[in-house]
């Protein structure tokens, strides 16, 4: 098999297999073919990975930030040099079109390695002068062994978004990719070693949820960073709390996108397309509740349908294809189930709505109009190519309805009224907001959710605070005064 890795796990700088672990079949979503067979980690593999990360941590943290950063930046260069091959792998792992994976996966992973590699040398504590000559200094310290657990939609990116800041701060990592897309994180581990990362600094083990759960409760682990759904986040956060571990939770969403009647319609339609159909709708921050002001609703829907006619659906390895399959049969069935619910609850189907008759797990880009706030498709995260268009009349009304959700990952507004745009984003209960665009996530900007969508932030300088902690040192320059 062309995409079969040398072994399932990458621990202490080497590929390692343990065939006693449960089977994991990697399926190419465009055809349903098995492209690799792996094994879930056994307790012995989990033990080996955690020991390796634990043993490597002190020496890694003892390097200067400049040295750690240099390794991360070298890894970034290697990723960019191999972008095409890594993209082919990512396309086979996820089904996402090569048109997307060549610009959004290994490249964004490389961005994270480069950005945090660049920051590593400047991570410091501070000096705090006090009265009478005393002072405090703070030491920024690594947390220790960090666990990363990934979702299946952006496997390379997630492996790097977690690994790069963790390693920059002097932590080591055990990363468990999603069992659905286990291949690319192994490449990230290989590349880090090639770039000079000492053995054990970045380990990858495969597994289902039980392997993730066993990592989260292990006393050697100081921090858990999860990208996944809200139900998994709840479990992982609770388990981590028991051991008082640090957490970052990047969870699901049902984000609003508001289009006012003064907006540039072409841009709003582009934003709605990117925010609903990129990666066949399998993006956590998608703006799946599209609120369109009544006056432009029909014009918006007409342009949207015309533009969707130009989506090129097909073999994701074809460079002209812009819309691929969903990641798995299971995920396809979930999306088709929601489409049926939308029809049954009275939403008006204006585009798509069916499985595509060909091999693989293809669902048409689907748009429902006349969706109301209480319909299932407007309340639950679908994680597929299903857009709900809702009507609104006033700013006040739409603000309240946009926030009426347990989620708070992202939110967007399209308008040419400058003050309204800022008023709206000030009112959004969401971690990541957009004005006149949607779904961009540059490494320089904090990314993450509010409410049930998560805790903590990835990317930007803020990620450093989630992968390090401060030691406070009070220094007295005076005699010690005691009452007796
Ligand atoms: P999921 O919650 O099913 O699984 C996520 C990961 O958690 C997998 O690796 C899984 O094996 C592991 N896991 C499952 N149970 C566990 C447990 N009890 N303990 C520890 N680990 C466990 O999510 P998914 O289906 O892989 O991904 C889709 C979800 O991820 C969507 O809800 C999506 O919104 C979310 N997501 C969020 C972001 C973000 O940055 N906010 C990005 C991508 C995806």
Features:
single chain, 484 residues, alpha/beta, 22 strands, binds nicotinamide-adenine-dinucleotide
Task: Summarize the structure in words.
- By secondary structure, the protein is of the alpha/beta class.
- The chain has helices at residues 43-62, 65-81, 83-94, 98-104, 106-120, 155-168, 184-194, 209-216, 230-242, 265-277, 297-308, 329-344, 376-379, 395-403, 418-427, 462-466, and strands at 9-11, 14-16, 23-27, 34-39, 127-129, 135-142, 145-149, 172-176, 202-204, 221-227, 246-250, 256-259, 289-293, 348-351, 366-369, 386-392, 407-408, 410-414, 432-435, 450-451, 454-455, 468-475.
- The protein has a 7-stranded mixed β-sheet with strand order 14-15-16-13-12-18-19, with helices on both faces. A 6-stranded mixed β-sheet has the order 9-8-7-10-11-21, sandwiched between helices.
- Helix 5 (106-120) runs parallel beside helix 6.
- The chain is globular.
- The relative contact order is 0.14.
- The model has no long low-confidence stretch (mean pLDDT 98).
- It binds nicotinamide-adenine-dinucleotide.
- Residues 149-153, 176, 178-179, 208-209, 212-213, 216, 227-229, 232, 235-236, 250-253, 284, 381, 383, 409, 449, 454 line the site of nicotinamide-adenine-dinucleotide (NAD).
